Amino acid sequence: MDENQELNNETNEYNESAGDTITKVTGMYKDWFLDYASYVILERAVPAIEDGFKPVQRRIMHSLKELDDGRYNKVANIVGHTMQYHPHGDASIGDAMVQIGQKDLLIDTQGNWGNILTGDGAAAPRYIEARLSKFALEVVYSPKITDWQLSYDGRKREPINLPVKFPLLLAQGGEGIAVGLSTKILPHNFLELIDASIKHLKGKTFTIYPDFPTAGIMDVANYNDGLRGGKVRVRAKISQYDKNTLVINEIPFGTNTSSLIDSILKANDKGKIKIKKIEDNTAAEVEILIHLPAGLSPDKTIDALYAFTACESSISPLGCIIEDNKPLFIGVSEMLRRSTDNTVELLKSELEIQLEELEEQWHFASLERIFIENRIYRNIEEEETWEGVISAIDEGLKPFITHLKRAVTEEDIVRLTEIRIKRISKFDIDKAQQRIDALEDDIAKVKYHLDHLIDFAIEYFTNLKKTYGVGRERKTEIRVFDDIEATKVVIRNTKLYVNREEGFVGTSLKKDEYVCDCSDIDDVIVFTKEGKMMVSKVDAKTFVGKNIIHVAVFKKKDKRTTYNLIYKDGKGGPSYIKRFAVTSITRDREYDLGQGKSGTDILYFSANPNGEAEVVTIFLRQSGSVKKLKWDIDFADILIKGRQSKGNLVTKYAVKRIELKEKGVSTLRPRKIWFDETVQRLNVDGRGELLGEFKGEDRLLVITQKGLLKTIIPELTTHFDNDMIVLEKWNPDKPISAIYYEGEKQRYYVKRFIVENENKEEYFISEHPDTKLEIVSTDWRPMAEVIFTKQRGKDQKENLELNMEEFISVKGIKAMGNQLTADKIRTVNLLESLPYDEPEEIEEEEAYLDDEQNENGNSSDDSQTSLF
């Protein structure tokens, strides 16, 4: 019993039990659906490896060729013509044609064809025009080697596959959803595909990666050659426009400015990010301005945009193609190899046809010369029948055809009879021989190409690159991305408020004092005037203790945030000073900052993110036994201990008030910071190049190729420009030396300067479009080599070794500098700098405290000696 009969019986049994009548559909399921699935896979959704086209695309290209006369055609006309071959509606044809046109490779477009950057659609087909590009005419068509089939209605012929001599599928990409499978082949770079094809022909290995028309940044670490399971991460290119503005100049593939802005607005509405407004100035190029509220970190906002919006997305490629009418899953490298090999075969077929045509031309040219030169045409004067004419010519040719490459046929003789008398009368033997010789040269050349087919194919690809590769350089930057932890950038998703007097903190106290932005997964640390400390999870409203003096988001394992404290120990008790860090706690437990006595009062408190130690002034109340009512205390003299330590005695007398006299600097050990060039980020984990040890006031020096200079605080969230050429710990005393070409003066200049304003970002060369920074050095005594251009009629000028320290003194950053030379310079190179003993920094070791100190400290070491 077959499965259909078995299903039939089961259906009948069910019908009898249910009392219903159901029509059998087994044949439909078994045959019709399989036919439909095969049709969708082969005829609609998946491109063929041979030419890289889906059927609708192939039919559009065929119609364009049939209509081609060098002028533009209305797209509506092209769509109508294509309907002779494509058995579907005009809308599907028009949409497919717009997609081809927007890829700017095969179709030369005119009119509004939409914008892939903004997502705007194309105008109606009756308003836009198209014609084949020169590239398409050269690469896609070759009727003599094309295999043909009847169209769906049998009235026309259409190509089975177009003879495409280029890896077109990889250049354009392809995407489709069929029945039971799908395909997603990402577009690749035109020039890189040609280079890879040449490498394959030479037997070398190659690697190709996607390149998107929307540009952006891409991480291909898990590309997996475009096979199933691979992944490509794409990002928008975001940079800082000014202090409170970010700018997006390139967007990720698969998005447009409209969808990108929508995702940013949604993230803002959900509280994931905080923005003031967005401006979309996109036209020919993307420009989205994101205005930030004052005081918001641009670098952290960039990370949040990547974490919570479409500014970063993940694309999963799936390499599925049709080969021999079957779906096949292969990687992009194998696609390129097969396409390149197919191109070689197509070139061979074209050469063989060309050779055959040239040999035919040579044969008839030689036959014509024999016919005319030997006056064989006179032999037919006496013949009265057609057969006699043919026979007479054939007999007349026989003595002269020994050097021909094939036998003379009747068709050849008929062609000879069609030669006009005028041509015979003006026949020039020398010109005829020259034409035969030229044909022989062409035949030899084609045979040479056939014998050296791989070299010919390499030359073919090289010519394609030279002719059509201008302006097709890579748009998408390849970079390894750093992983962004959402918990670190989500802190901006809600606002934290505090009611200090009543002792409440939370996100719902909107009528009370705003503290900071936070996330619903953060912890909050709170200090009260009574000397209590508590850490609690962010909530709508939480009671933590009355008279709050400090509240902030708590960072776990934070060894650098230091709390400076002066407190009165109990009612009428003495005052103590202490410094401590809070690295770990039990949530919702109340801790004592003093000794737990009733009446404890906080007289002075500060929270310092980098262990800063300020100087304060103590004022005592007037008392008969106290002579000194005012003095200063430097927190730098106090060791950082645990929260439970009692501290050092300040005074046993009543304190009237404490005032801040001088802001402090960090007393923690300098923090080692590295720069990981792979992800272009700073870190403290030892990845990349060590930049140095940084104290609280230390800064980084950043110089770009455009001559932009700035000093920045080394925050780990900092983003760096792609054209950065100097990144190092800034020494304010060390001069910066530069050689640059001044565009307006058209001369080379040398300058040395000191950074005058550490908080200002400025150019140290002019912003003239022709100005170019040649070299920049932060060494104390840099040396440079100047190589001059050789001039006609003059001896080559010797290279110049330049001691920049001796050439020019240190001047201001705005100074133009001294002219280097009036001669033309070919290049300038940095040489090894002269030796210099850099002055050592004198530091008091005891002033720096180890940030690895135990939080609990050692109360037995607390000094109770008065500080005055």
Low-confidence stretches: 1-19, 842-868
CATH class of the domain at 28-201: Alpha Beta
Q: Can you name the CATH architecture of the domain at 28-201?
A: Alpha-Beta Complex
Q: Tell me the CATH topology of the domain at 28-201.
A: Topoisomerase II, domain 5
Q: Count the strands?
A: 47
Beta-sheet strand percentage? 25-35%
Helix vs. strand class: alpha+beta
Measure the end-to-end span.
108 Å
Output the number of helix runs.
18
Radius of gyration: 41 Å
**Helix content range:** 25-40%
CATH superfamily of the domain at 28-201: Topoisomerase II, domain 5
Question: Major sheet, described briefly?
Answer: 5 strands, mixed
Instruction: Name the average pLDDT.
Output: 86
Please characterize this protein's 3D structure.
The N and C termini lie far apart (about 110 Å). The longest helix has about 40 residues, at about 330-375. The strands form 14 sheets. Strands 25, 26, 28, 31 and 32 form a 5-stranded mixed beta sheet that branches. A 4-stranded mixed beta sheet has the order 14-9-8-17. A hairpin with a 7-residue loop joins strand 12 (about 275-280) and strand 13 (about 290). Helix 3 (about 55-65) packs across helix 4 (about 75-80) and helix 8 packs antiparallel against helix 16. It is an alpha+beta fold and about 850 residues long. Among the domains are: about 30-200, Alpha-Beta Complex (Topoisomerase II, domain 5); about 230-315, 2-Layer Sandwich (Gyrase A, domain 2), CATH 3.30.1360; about 570-575 and about 590-665 and about 850-868, no CATH class; about 670-830, no CATH class. The chain is built from 18 helices and 47 strands. The chain is elongated and about 155 Å long. The protein is about 25% helix and about 25% strand.
